[in-house]
Amino acid sequence: MALDRIRQLASQLTGTTQGLSALRARNPEDVVITMAIRSPLTKAKRGALKDTGVDGLLLELFKQTIANSKVDPALVGDICVGTVLTPDACYHARGASLAAGFPESVPVQVMNRFCSSGLMAATTIANQIRVGQIEVGLAIGVESMSQNPDNGGPAQCEAVTANPASKDCLMPMGWTSENVAKEFSVSREIMDEFSAMSYQRAEVAQKEGRFKKEIVPFTVDVTDPKTGEKRRVTVDQDDGIRYGTTQESLSKIRAAFPQWQPSCTTGGNASQITDGAAAVMMMTRRKAEQLGLPIMGKFVTTTVTGVVPRVMGIGPAYAIPMLLEKAGISQDDVDMYEINEAFASQYVYCIKALGLSPEKVNVNGGAIAFGHPLGCTGVRQIVTGLHEMERRGAKVLVTSMCIGTGMGAAGLFVRD
């Protein structure tokens, strides 16, 4: 009996448990998610969260976590915050957690792997739980692109930039989008077609109230640009979804990067620049059952891979097959995919390269429709996916995203 238990733990720690039936089996040491929430996603520089910095976003999210998790904050063994552009992120994260009501005994760490930072935060917490370092943990994704715009890569020494791939790491993401469109023959027409679908799905989802269970209201101060006066507002829905969007209307938008061919990327078929935050509470199944908490899903594993920097958007096309092989399942075993829509060029390429049915991917729209707060997205996808799985009665979710400088990541989650 003891030997069987050792083998079971070794299998969990190495991620070698394979096959759909094995993944759906319930074990006391499973890493499960008991709460999945997010802020509304609002337009950077224009939306209701534009005057709320990262510390303010985290403060609201931590408060909502305490209110919604039904977990004593003192039980949280660690908090991991994924963020990309935030300067002094550790100060913001630690200060906001204390101000929200987490006791001084609860530590905080910060994770940055560009657009996968939120997923990496969840992976870090899951791994800590899995090896017994903590029993309960909180994974956060956050980004204020209003306060911290993406100004591109830093200057690097000549010895580094003399390497062509290293130099490509510093190039703007729009350039990589055009490279994908050109090298893999992704037309402007199909980019606009898939982007229109993202908007239309998000419109339907918002009108039907599908996001209501995942969005928690944020009460923040907004400054009137004309008078400079501040007013307190409560924000409770995404503001980037453009109702009535069609392929025809998107086709009229001019190219965003005419300096790079084939100049197919536009403000209508690329992810919106957005502010937002999201959180998932994670713990062992044993602990969740002990606390009487609902289990939304089980974290299985994550894969990360590197790809050619100049076409960084193709990352999911490599990370997802690695994930499925590691788990011992096929594409047909997956009920839903959440793949980040950084640019329509890379999103279309990844779906086609993998042979995925569009009916399984981003069923409620994606970043083109409601935005891509860089550090937030990895957790936001988990939140949206888990809630939609519950609504549909689905069982298996894969989340994935491309990563600046040429990488891809994917995560696997199973619902009881």
UniProtKB/TrEMBL annotation:
<dbReference type="InterPro" id="IPR020617">
    <property type="entry name" value="Thiolase_C"/>
</dbReference>
<dbReference type="GO" id="GO:0003988">
    <property type="term" value="F:acetyl-CoA C-acyltransferase activity"/>
</dbReference>
<feature type="active site" description="Proton acceptor">
    <location>
        <position position="372"/>
    </location>
</feature>
<keyword id="KW-0012">Acyltransferase</keyword>
<dbReference type="Pfam" id="PF02803">
    <property type="entry name" value="Thiolase_C"/>
</dbReference>
<comment type="pathway">
    <text>Lipid metabolism; fatty acid metabolism.</text>
</comment>
<dbReference type="GO" id="GO:0005777">
    <property type="term" value="C:peroxisome"/>
</dbReference>
<dbReference type="InterPro" id="IPR020613">
    <property type="entry name" value="Thiolase_CS"/>
</dbReference>
<feature type="active site" description="Acyl-thioester intermediate">
    <location>
        <position position="115"/>
    </location>
</feature>
<keyword id="KW-0808">Transferase</keyword>
<feature type="domain" description="Thiolase C-terminal">
    <location>
        <begin position="295"/>
        <end position="413"/>
    </location>
</feature>
<dbReference type="GO" id="GO:0010124">
    <property type="term" value="P:phenylacetate catabolic process"/>
</dbReference>
<dbReference type="InterPro" id="IPR050215">
    <property type="entry name" value="Thiolase-like_sf_Thiolase"/>
</dbReference>
<dbReference type="GO" id="GO:0006635">
    <property type="term" value="P:fatty acid beta-oxidation"/>
</dbReference>
<comment type="similarity">
    <text>Belongs to the thiolase-like superfamily. Thiolase family.</text>
</comment>
<feature type="domain" description="Thiolase N-terminal">
    <location>
        <begin position="31"/>
        <end position="285"/>
    </location>
</feature>
<dbReference type="InterPro" id="IPR002155">
    <property type="entry name" value="Thiolase"/>
</dbReference>
<dbReference type="InterPro" id="IPR020616">
    <property type="entry name" value="Thiolase_N"/>
</dbReference>
<feature type="active site" description="Proton acceptor">
    <location>
        <position position="402"/>
    </location>
</feature>
<dbReference type="Pfam" id="PF00108">
    <property type="entry name" value="Thiolase_N"/>
</dbReference>
<protein>
    <submittedName>
        <fullName>Thiolase</fullName>
    </submittedName>
</protein>
<dbReference type="InterPro" id="IPR016039">
    <property type="entry name" value="Thiolase-like"/>
</dbReference>
